[in-house]
Amino acid sequence: ALVIRALGVLEGIALTGDPKFKMIMEAFPYVSKRVMSTDTPLLRKAFRDIVYVDGVLSAKRLQVLLDSSAGFLGDGDAFVDFDTPSEEAMDPTESLKFLNSEDGKFLRSVIADEIAVSLDVVARSSTMELKRRIPSTLLALPFVNVLNLVPDLSKEEIVQLENVREIVKFLSDRQVSSKNMTPETLRALLPELGNSASDIVIQVAGQLSELAVRRAFDVRRSSGEVVAGRKRFPQSRLQSNLSRWNSNLTKK
């Protein structure tokens, strides 16, 4: 981010006069708040550069950004380590207060996107767990073999589940395992979001509807593959399962 880079240059100049001076550490609470609240292309890019790693939101980096906006910084000599949260963290009530404020509007949008994606991933994860519990001999039965169409979770999606677990943790101070994440877990977070809950629910509903429509069109495509979530699998697999299904129905 250009703002942070400029501060780095100014700090270098200041250090020639006072070796113990830490301009970035002093200014970072203000910078963090601006990065999360100011609606300009430059600062939106700065937010993405800080919080997203390989295209996936990092809950740890988001927490560091929130903590630093409240003055909770790590023990670095001059620079903030976004991958190492401070020993002192922002109180969940303060995080929620910022999220409910006008300055937290953009952050609410980001969290809503993550919740929408995670609800979809949690649903697929639950379906995969159900599939694992069904005897293999029953998976070819009508209305059961459709479970074979559900692809395994990708590494990226597993990371997303872990990130939402961390978001739930630092917004509500509740411990929850990513393996035990359920739609109820995320729904239980909504009352704690206060006034921002309605905005988030509306956006999540819109995102899920958009995802459902996109998948409906993906399944109807004839390009040789079907898309489920962000993971692709061969259309031949779909054809094979449907053929088996039709065969079983014919025999009956």
TrEMBL record:
Protein name per its UniProtKB record: Uncharacterized protein
Source organism (scientific name): Rhodosorus marinus
Homology family: Belongs to the protein kinase superfamily. ADCK protein kinase family.
Lineage: Eukaryota, Rhodophyta, Stylonematophyceae, Stylonematales, Stylonemataceae
PANTHER family: CHAPERONE-ACTIVITY OF BC1 COMPLEX CABC1 -RELATED, PROTEIN ACTIVITY OF BC1 COMPLEX KINASE 7, CHLOROPLASTIC
InterPro entries, sorted: UbiB_kinase
